[in-house]
Amino acid sequence: RTSTATVMVLFATIIFLFGGVLGTFHHLYFSGTPTSVIAVGAMISALEVVPLLVVGFEAYTRHKVEHEAEWERIYHWPFMFFAAVLFWNLVGAGLFGFLINPPIALYYMQGLNTTANHGHAALFGVYGMLGLGLTLYCMRGLTDVTRWNQKWIRISFWSLNIGLGMMTFLSLLPQGILQTYASIEHGYAYARSAEFIHSPIMQALVWARVPGDVVFAFGVFAFAWFMVQAFMHGRKSTPETAAIPKPAL
């Protein structure tokens, strides 16, 4: 039922948003934060995998029945974006997050490009993709799904994900690893110094981010153009309001 599906989607969104905000408290080691706050951040971060597993199971079961009914097909792209949430939650929030969040790692890595790498992949990869998936879910009720230009959604989906992957793996992650090595060998201040940041290899890795930015920007344009076309050509028609009879005098 539509009402049940809507409630479940909103409930999952609330869990993600609520858990995500409190989960950021695990970054607050070595900043004078009370132990109780760090404990809340650690607990919520660990529990974030629960809704992730539930959404993953739902996406898997829906994929198996996608071609059994016509109405199932209109959920294809919203669930593709939700599947991207699962991937980036595993890689961006999970792998890159656990890379920097243990206390001994934070001592050397906090504030380096390892943090930016985790932030890019976890913030847009999880919450950005979640927002786009929910946008498409809402667009079903505002526009005519049968008139959607599927080509632009497909281009947007793959461009956003590939571009984000290029940003992280070609630029931010290598920069963070080099900074971490410099922090361990020569001290944290040197890893953040202008001398190291503007070294030839670091500057080359900064420019290595440009291809990913271009691909990602094209995905943003494609999604925006899809939205414009959907509202211009695919808005759902509403029945005309019946004329209200005049009361008898």
From TrEMBL:
Keywords: Membrane, Transmembrane, Transmembrane helix. GO terms for biological process: aerobic respiration. InterPro entries: Cyt_c_oxase-like_su1_sf, Cyt_C_Oxase_1. It comes from the Bacteria. The keyword Transmembrane helix applies. SUPFAM superfamilies: Cytochrome c oxidase subunit I-like. One of its GO terms (molecular function) is cytochrome-c oxidase activity. Gene3D superfamilies: Cytochrome c oxidase-like, subunit I domain. The chain crosses the membrane at residues 7-30, 36-57, 77-100, 120-140, 152-173, 214-232. GO terms for cellular component: membrane. The keyword Transmembrane helix applies. This is Nitric oxide reductase large subunit. It comes from Stakelama sediminis.
